[in-house]
Amino acid sequence: MIHVENLTKYYDDFCAVEQISLHIKKGEILGLLGPNGAGKTTTLRMLTGYFLPSSGNIRVKDFSIDKHPLEIKQLIGYLPESAPLYNDMLVYDYLDYVARIRGLEKDERAARIRHLVGLCGLNNIMHKTIGELSKGLKQRVGLAYAMMSDPEILILDEPTSGLDPNQIVEIREIIRQIGKQKTVILSTHILTEAEATCDRIVIINKGKIVADGSTDMLKQSVGADKVIHLALLDADAASVQERLGDLDGVCRVEPANSSGDDSLTFKLICTGSGDVRKRIYETIKQTDWVLTEFYPETKTLENIFLELTREN
After folding, report:
1. In 10 A of CB 244, how many CB atoms?
2. Could you tell me which of 162, 280, 290, 301 has the C-alpha nearest to residue 228?
3. Are the beta carbons of 6 and 21 closer than 8 angstroms?
4. Residue 279: Cβ-neighbour burial (10 angstroms; 0-12, 13-18, 19+)
5. How far apart are CA 168 and CA 130, in angstroms?
6. Which pLDDT value is given to residue 53?
7. pLDDT grade, residue 18 (50/70/90)?
8. Which end of the chain is least crowded, N or C, by CB within 10 Å?
9. How many whole angstroms separate alpha carbon 72 and alpha carbon 266?
10. pTM to 2 decimals?
11. Are 271 and 225 in contact (CB under 8 A)?
């Protein structure tokens, strides 16, 4: 549905987004992750037509961003990080105002507002002023605003930023409901939310895509090395590194942080498809070392994100 080809954006001499290419399917919920300044918001603004790319192209259906920007904008609902709300307006008046701007006729306008009120859980606040709402409720009103024209594509920039855990869960459920019928693209810093909400995750760092796939795919493909943690009593670091480092499948043995007692802790970086744990255990059995901890490191989305975006 959305084809992004070699998308690049310069601000003077600074390259904010460099050669990004994506294909986003209809009905997909795609999460755009990255550290501050990675290029997420710039990418979303180019997708909405707010910014024109310095080079590259965006195609939505049969429309190209350089030749058919208005047609593409009509297909998209966009909620920026700071929702364009008017604090002195009643929620109902604001939604009616947005519907009028979108060109909805009276009967269509009333039906659309009713649908969005139910979808976004706004029934009890329609006659409250926006300024007296919590941030979570304001975000719900913002979602209704972005959905008013019934767009095929919904783009959300940090939709759960600054919300408490309960509000995050509520917004997540709304996004999941919307994703059953729409294509949703969202940026977020909350990795657990991306994992719980998105069908697919794209990680951007320094303007480039460094990972693209489902969480399970990323866990399998990013960092082929396996990490095993262990703690030993009655051992010296040099002997442990020498004996375990010589095992087939163990690349290196690194001292880790102290476990808080007299144990020495280590990280074993292992490679290959086989399970090296049996060889490690058998080697330790042949010594006087006392094994107090022995477990593999579980790769999480946070581990993957840090591995792909850290400076060194």
Report:
1. 21
2. 280
3. yes
4. middle
5. 19
6. 93
7. very high
8. C
9. 54
10. 0.79
11. yes
- Residues 6+ positions from 302 with CB-CB distance below 8 Å: 191
pLDDT at 255 over 50: yes
**The three-state (H, E, C) secondary structure of the chain, written as one string:** CEEEEEEEEEECCEEEEEEEEEEECCCCEEEEECCCCCCHHHHHHHHHCCCCCCEEEEEECCEECCCCHHHHHHCEEEECCCCCCCCCCEHHHHHHHHHHHCCCCHHHHHHHHHHHHHHHCCHHHCCCEHHHCCHHHHHHHHHHHHHCCCCCEEEEECCCCCCCHHHHHHHHHHHHHHHCCCEEEEEECCHHHHHHHCCEEEEEECCEEEEEECHHHHHHHCCCCEEEEEEEECCCHHHHHHHHHCCCCEEEEEECCCCCCCCEEEEEEECCCCCCHHHHHHHHHCCCCEEEEEEECCCCHHHHHHHHHCCC
pLDDT, residue 6, reads 94
Token pair listed for 207: 């303007």
Structure tokens at 190: 């909350």
CB atoms within 10 A of CB 64: 14
Report d(CA 282, CA 286) in Å as an integer. Answer: 7
Query: Residue 56 and residue 81: Cα distance in Å, rounded?
Result: 25
Q: Is the distance from CB of 34 to CB of 52 less than 8 angstroms? A: no
Could you tell me what percent of the chain has a pLDDT over 70? 96
Which pair of tokens denotes residue 77?
Answer: 């609902």
Whole-angstrom distance, CA of residue 300 vs CA of residue 189: 15
pLDDT tens per residue across span 211-246: 998 887 887 666 556 889 999 999 989 999 999 999
Work out the end-to-end distance of the chain between its first and last CA atoms, rounded to an integer number of angstroms: 36
312: confidence class by pLDDT, cuts 50, 70, 90: very low
Separation between Cα atoms, residue 101 and residue 119, nearest integer Å: 21
Distance of CA 146 to the CA centre of its chain: 20
